[in-house]
Specification:
Length: 76
């Protein structure tokens, strides 16, 4: 059996389509009911965002830079 770290590592190597399918299967297996329409909308939005990043339409910034900008904006 794979360790959680191994499972995460292998999951990250999947194609976006396979990741979406894996997410769908994991969500189906959870005990709390989840609105499937909301889940599909979220997955579609995530795939759109990934495509925007991969195409160069939008640029990402490092997390620490984003957090610093948010802190500065809200005066913390």
């Amino acid at each position: 059996m794979l360790t959680l770290a191994q499972l995460i590592s292998e999951s990250l190597a999947l194609s976006d389509a396979d990741k979406a399918l894996l997410i769908d299967k994991i969500m189906e297996s959870m005990t709390d009911p989840i609105d499937q329409d909301i889940l599909r909308e979220g997955m579609q939005k995530a795939q759109e965002r990934i495509a925007e990043i991969e195409s160069g339409k939008v640029q990402t910034i490092p997390g620490d830079v984003a957090l610093a900008q948010i802190r500065q904006q809200f005066g913390q």
